[in-house]
From TrEMBL:
Organism classification: Eukaryota, Metazoa, Chordata, Craniata, Vertebrata
Annotated ranges, domain B30.2/SPRY: 39-237
Keyword match Transmembrane helix: yes
Pfam families: SPRY
InterPro entries for the chain: B30.2/SPRY (IPR001870), B30.2/SPRY_sf (IPR043136), ConA-like_dom_sf (IPR013320), SPRY_dom (IPR003877), TRIM/RBCC (IPR050143)
Protein name: B30.2/SPRY domain-containing protein
PANTHER family named among the record's database cross-references: E3 UBIQUITIN-PROTEIN LIGASE TRIM
Transmembrane segments: 256-274
Keywords assigned: Membrane, Transmembrane, Transmembrane helix
Domain of life assignment: Eukaryota
């Protein structure tokens, strides 16, 4: 009896459902998302977009070389002096009591980094050999393995000399460039150049830096509470089969040696011409 009562109701429900249920719509290819576009190389694209959020710093300061009176930021990219400047009576500042080294040394090749000095009027930037085991009161000079540029107020000077010079515009961001070079005898050496990074203007150069040993960047803030900061650079992506960095040509790589050979050839031609002229007489 129960089945007889419910069967008419079930048939009526099924009939109404079939009548008013919309048929399944077929999705066209235009309404589908481009899966390959959005999911292909997904990890790579996420990493590529992260470059703007996570900057790359070419120089990381070594906290183990930080004097106790200096303050280094948590990300190891800036340092501030907590003391007043040294006594002006000393023409060369002292070692290690007032300097912070980079964590990585540079060998052959070209290496560039930028330091934001801001409005600081007293600082020293440069490169040096590793100073472990050296006297703490050693002067900063090329004889002791230090090459750099010092600003003292409105005047600038190299660590190798007391000769001072001034600039029309004091840079707020200094670019330091360490690269290979050749001396007049064709021997391999290195040079350090300094430029205003904001206007791309070169204003100082140190030549004759020895090769064969790693050189470490160093910074010296001499203004109290005026930090020196390493400037981040855009990260570059190098894919297999692509050449992002420009290779130096033969002339650029051996420019110094090429110039020496040219001068030698000219001198030989002059000597030959002189001897030929004497024989003719």
């Amino acid at each position: 009896m129960q089945d007889i009562v419910h069967n008419p109701y079930n048939r009526l429900y099924d009939s109404a459902r079939a009548k008013y249920t919309l048929p399944d719509q077929e999705l066209s290819s235009e309404s589908l998302i481009d899966v390959s576009k959005h999911l292909g190389n997904l990890k790579y694209h996420v990493w590529d977009n992260m470059k703007d959020i996570c900057p790359y710093y070419p120089v990381i300061l070594n906290p183990h070389t930080t004097p106790p009176d200096f303050s280094v930021s948590d990300d190891l990219t800036s340092v501030t002096s907590c003391l007043h400047r040294q006594d002006k009576s000393s023409p060369f500042p002292l070692n290690r009591s007032c300097m912070v080294l980079g964590s990585v040394g540079y060998g052959i090749g070209t290496h560039t980094w930028q330091i934001e000095v801001g409005n600081s009027r007293h600082w020293i930037l440069g490169v040096c050999f590793r100073s472990e085991g050296k006297p703490i009161t050693q002067h900063l000079s090329p004889e002791n393995g230090f090459w750099g540029l010092r600003r003292d107020g409105c005047m600038y000077s190299f660590l190798s000399t007391q000769t001072r010079f001034s600039l029309k515009t004091n840079p707020e961001v200094v670019q330091v460039r360490l690269e290979d070079d050749f001396d007049v005898m064709g021997r391999w050496q290195r040079k350090v150049s300094f430029s205003d990074a904001r206007i791309n203007s070169h204003f100082a150069k140190i030549t004759g830096v020895p090769s064969g040993k790693e050189l470490f960047p160093f910074v010296m803030p001499e203004d109290r509470s005026a930090p020196l900061r390493v400037v981040p650079i855009p990260a570059k992506i190098t894919l297999a089969g692509e050449q992002v960095e420009r290779n130096l040509s033969f002339q650029e790589r051996y420019k110094g040696l090429f110039e020496i050979c040219c001068w030698v050839a000219i001198a030989l031609l002059v000597i030959i011409a002189f001897k030929t002229d004497r024989q003719d007489k």
